[in-house]
Amino acid sequence: MDLGRERLPLRTKLAYGIGEMGEVVFNGMFNGFIVIFYNQAIGLSNSLIGTAIMLAMIGDAVSDPLVGMISDRWRSRWGRRHPFLFMAPIPLATSLFFIFNPPAALTGGISGEPNSLWLFIWLTCWTISGRLFVTLYTIPHHALGGELTKDPNERSRLFSLNAIIGYVSGALFALTVWGFFFAGESTLADGSIVPKHLDVSAYPPVILTACGIVLGNPSRRQPFSQSGSSNRSFTKPMIMSSETKPPSSMITFAFFPSSVPAFTAARSMSPVLI
């Protein structure tokens, strides 16, 4: 049988694409609400929020290629990708929970002023942790897609379905959050009425739902590649063709430029609400 022209079953493509949902939900919560929650709901300055994100992105620049190279060289009975897919969801959900649940002693409680320094440290540590475990899942997951088939056309169909599922699930999650969880207004302890997304007490149900999606992400049902747990040295020539697998360490080097905009973002935020 010509493996290079084998069509992947639809269930394999769907199982792989649904694996994108955990990353999409985490990024949707973080990118969509981190500034609203910490700046407008709690009162931390945008300059400190931008600095925390910048430090996390710098960590990404280190962890992305490192996780890629470790995954490429990993050997186990479950292959070289699945161990990372198994271990990432629980710490990822934990990091997401604590990002949006700082202790009352740091936020100032109902009427107190937030402790900006320790709140910044809290946000930085858990953001770095969250980004690390996103990397621990995303890099092997994307590399696995390149190993499921040698046919470049079938790879394109696989990643197209993966992208569609990711975009649709992200849109549905955002619609649910804004249309259900954050719909309407809240009355604060001081009697003021604010939109629900500015009420800290409105966030726990959203976070628990997001954590449930991350934990329920079907990482254990991700398909195994045709290559099994085969491995190649990172130092060998990596020639991209329809007959070779793209090592995940190659994928990660494309992410280095993503850390650059973080510096610009932090600098642009620094004059605002310091």
Describe this structure in words.
This protein has one domain: Growth Hormone, Chain: A, CATH 1.20.1250.20. It is built from eleven helices and two strands; from the N terminus they run ααααααααββααα. The protein has helices at 10-18, 21-42, 46-73, 82-87, 89-99, 104-107, 116-147, 152-181, 203-216, 248-253, 260-269; strands spanning 185-187, 193-195. A two-stranded antiparallel ribbon has the order 1-2. The longest helix is centred in the middle third of the chain and has 32 residues, at 116-147. 39% of the residues are buried. Mean pLDDT is 79; it is low at 226-274.
Low-confidence stretches: 226-274
Count of distinct structural domains: 1
Total helical segments: 11
For the largest beta sheet, what order do the strands appear in spatially? 1-2
Class per helix and strand makeup: mainly alpha
Integer average pLDDT? 79
CATH class: Mainly Alpha
How much of the sequence lies in strands comes to: under 5%
Question: Tell me about the biggest sheet?
Answer: 2 strands, antiparallel
Distance between the termini: 65 Å
Shape: globular
Order of helices and strands: HHHHHHHHEEHHH
Query: Would you report the number of β strands?
Result: 2
